[in-house]
Amino acid sequence: PSAISHRRISVLGATGSIGVNTLDVIAHMGGPEAFDVVALTGASNVALLAEQAKAVNAEVAVTADERRYHDLKAALAGTGIEAAAGRGALIEAAGRPADITMAAIVGMAGLEPTLAAAANGGVMALANKECLVSAGDLFIAAVREAGGTLLPVDSEHNAIFQVLDPAQKRAVERIILTASGGPFRTFTREQMAGVTAETARRHPNWSMGLKISIDSASMFNKALEMVEARHLFNVAPDQVEVIVHPQSIVHSMVAYADGSVLAQLGPSDMRTAIGYCLAWPFRAHMPVERLDFAKLAQLDFEAPDEARFPALRLARQALAHAGVAGAVLNGAKEVALDAFIDGRLGFLAMAETVERVMEAMATWPSAASLADVIAADAEARERARALL
Ligand code: NAD
Ligand code: MG
Fold this sequence. Notes:
Number of helices: 17
CATH superfamily of the largest domain: RNA polymerase sigma factor, region 2, helix turn helix motif
Strand content: 15-25%
Structural class: alpha/beta
Largest sheet: 7 strands, parallel
CATH topology of the largest domain: Rna Polymerase Sigma Factor, Chain: A
Radius of gyration: 20 Å
Bound molecules: nicotinamide-adenine-dinucleotide, magnesium ion
Shape: globular
Helix content: 40-55%
Mean pLDDT: 96
Oligomer: single chain
Order of helices and strands: EHEHEHEHEHEHEHEHHHHEEEHHHHHH
Number of domains: 2
CATH architecture of the largest domain: Orthogonal Bundle
Strand order of the largest sheet: 4-3-2-1-5-6-7
Number of strands: 11
């Protein structure tokens, strides 16, 4: 008999890349024998959301987009599955009791629903890194106060979590995040200047959502992950290191005081990290490719180039400050990224925009309330828009 049976689970952002992989993992781990699905949430793709809700017999399906309510309702007619729409409904459904929440909404839009889920206690499988980048201290406190367990889904942080023994925490010298370098790893600045969203989204190793794929190309994804790591593992800014590793096999490492470096390795398939979080504290079988070291033959590492990828330098600045610095970095980045996707801003101008917003807002408070975070995010977006 499986150790995992009838755990209640909600998947926020079920229709996205992480969400679809999560439902695949749920099915692989035994489906209805292993999990009772509480809430599934999505946004515009209500056809997929309804199909997913029927497949797992969810209690409720919520679209964040109010205009899609009737489509969702119609698609679920006669199933007994509740249909709901809008921001309020999303937050309400996210807060329903569950043993595990997969938090996989993209962007700052995920913060409030994820906080609502955190208030439940239980396991918080966190893919939405923006919660930690924008509101790290608050978010960690919310999980802790509710007696919950925070498990990182992001592959790098999941790797670190796997090799960081809490009993040896004081002997940690460095957290080493690996970065693939993205599709423009070898590009000059001149070459990068003209790239489009269509080329930027083509990640060499991972299949992911549109925004995180482009953030990987600009290395803003790694920038966010540096801030994410600081909050998750409570280390000093100078203990967070980035190393470019084009094969994406070593998912990250922890360096200890005795000279040992522990790494987690695996295929570039998010189901390993998702499965780890869903099976925790056990491990489940996952239908991913197995590493064949004879075939791999070679693992490369190189120093990141902050001149070509200024996002990393901006992350260092955000790390140096507490308070709302992360919210400013992320808010400005989300606006710049949307503008790049729409063809209104060049690839290199994304980092320039974020840098100018960070400079303009450089007097951060050292601690921040949720209201401070939301205000800083709004101001950063406003300033970034004004620069476009
Ligand atoms: P995605 O774009 O594929 O999916 C995003 C999900 O969020 C969808 O279900 C969408 O309907 C929902 N959503 C979008 N806007 C929303 C809004 N305003 N309100 C409510 N819901 C909304 O994204 P993804 O690649 O699955 O990434 C999800 C999160 O996980 C991101 O924070 C990303 O950084 C993180 N992450 C993803 C991967 C990956 O492999 N895809 C890896 C590590 C971390
Ligand atoms: Mg990652």
